[in-house]
Design brief:
single chain, alpha/beta, Nucleotidyltransferase, domain 5, 5-stranded mixed beta sheet, ROK
Length: 397
């Protein structure tokens, strides 16, 4: 931030300096006053005065100086960011399950709760279950609503820059129930609604395979394909929040719909079992065929299951190729609950990909598993807290 002579009033300078110091401390461990001077370029008097302000606000704690028999003069003051000054929530509202992560201000998980929403019939019922899951997570950690500073919430629908859900598609309308407003009314903290794939991209760049990658695409590939896109480290939203939506796949030869890896594997496995002429170990399994069973059967050498995965890999490669051609990311990460199983597809995906584009992106599988969206939602909430820290009123435990 550049402060001109005309606007550089003492209160504003104090605020700017406080934000600078808080930014350094929130990303570091214990720091001395000397270390903060070196990291910020501020004077010793300014560092100590602003740290005193941050201590009184609750953002920073001062530690005992410790003993150093070799030191001359007064021991250095030692400061640390107060990661338990408040908490944030990362909420993933999926079509089948709601997951809530409660995290401290360094993003470390304090509590987790999850509930099925597969039998939910209305958006209002979905909101009620989200509320109940939040209450469960807070109660398990002994945290009350006033200690929560913000909640990031991911939904499987496009969300514009103002937090409004695009409802042009029937599936997207399932999430449109004044969700953010209702949760704020119930709990009192700001609710930051965002597309789930966008949050997956934030999570991957923060703590996943996409660390230090600025041009990144994350492909949620379970039941439905959805992508979150980052260009030069910035999320792409589009005019109505629809950047990265995959409805265009209906027009792509060899794909034809937005069905993801899990659904295609499951449907083709079920079709094979339904055909008495097909010889496969899938027929010996109890209950409905699942994608996991197809991957397991392929790992055991079942020819039918191997053929299904070859088809899935070729189809997924076409999806990755379209992202590579349209957005030219350095890396495409396959994410979601299907990610670990999808490792078996990588060799075939990469082989097909080289035939579809002359500039194929690198392809990796997320290590965040089914927490990818909720981790990104935590990061989204932390971004809000960092931006508004000096305006937030911290509540003691």
């Amino acid at each position: 931030m550049t402060v001109t002579q005309a606007t550089a009033t003492p209160p504003l300078l104090r605020r700017v300096n406080a934000g600078k110091l808080l930014g350094v401390l929130s990303n570091a461990g214990v720091m001395t006053g000397t270390g903060l001077i070196q990291a910020t370029g501020l004077t010793r008097a300014t560092v100590h005065a602003v740290c005193n302000d941050l201590i009184s606000m609750g953002w920073v704690v001062e530690l005992d100086p410790g003993r150093d028999d070799t030191a001359v003069g007064r021991p250095s003051r030692r400061f640390e960011f107060n990661s338990r000054a408040g908490y944030v929530l990362g909420i993933d509202i999926g079509d089948a399950k709601t997951t809530v992560l409660l995290a401290d201000l360094r993003g470390e998980t304090v509590a987790k709760a999850g509930r099925s929403v597969s039998d939910v019939k209305t958006p209002g019922e979905r909101t009620d279950i989200v509320h109940e899951t939040i209450v469960e997570a807070l109660a398990s950690a002994g945290v009350c609503d006033p200690q929560v500073l913000a909640a990031g919430v991911g939904v499987a629908a496009p969300v514009d820059r103002d937090g409004n859900i695009l409802v042009d598609d029937e599936f997207w309308r399932r999430f449109d129930a004044g969700l953010a407003k209702r949760l704020t009314e119930l709990h009192g903290w700001p609710v930051l609604l965002e597309n789930d794939a966008n949050l997956a991209a934030l999570g991957e760049q923060w703590r996943g395979e996409g660390r230090d990658v600025d041009d990144l695409a994350v492909l949620l590939a379970g039941e439905r394909f959805g992508s979150g896109l980052m260009d030069s480290g910035r999320l792409l939203h589009g005019s109505r929040g629809g950047a990265g939506e995959m409805v265009y796949l209906k027009l792509v030869e060899g794909v034809g719909d937005t069905h993801g890896i899990a659904r295609i594997a499951r449907d083709q496995g079920a079709a094979a079992v339904a055909d008495p002429a097909v010889d496969t170990i899938l027929r010996t399994l109890d209950g409905p065929i699942t994608a996991e069973q197809v991957f397991t059967a392929a790992g055991s050498g079942d020819e039918v299951a191997l053929g299904i995965l070859q088809h899935v890999a070729g189809r997924t490669a076409r999806v990755v190729a379209t992202l590579g051609i349209l957005f030219n990311p350095e890396l495409v990460v396959l994410g979601g609950a299907v990610a670990q199983a999808a490792k078996a597809l990588l060799p075939d995906i990469e082989r097909h990909l080289a035939t579809f584009t002359s500039t194929p992106p690198r392809v990796a599988v997320s290590s965040l598993g089914d927490a990818i969206v909720s981790v990104g939602a935590v990061r989204h909430a932390l971004n809000y807290v960092e931006q508004h820290a000096l305006d937030l009123n911290l509540k003691p435990a």
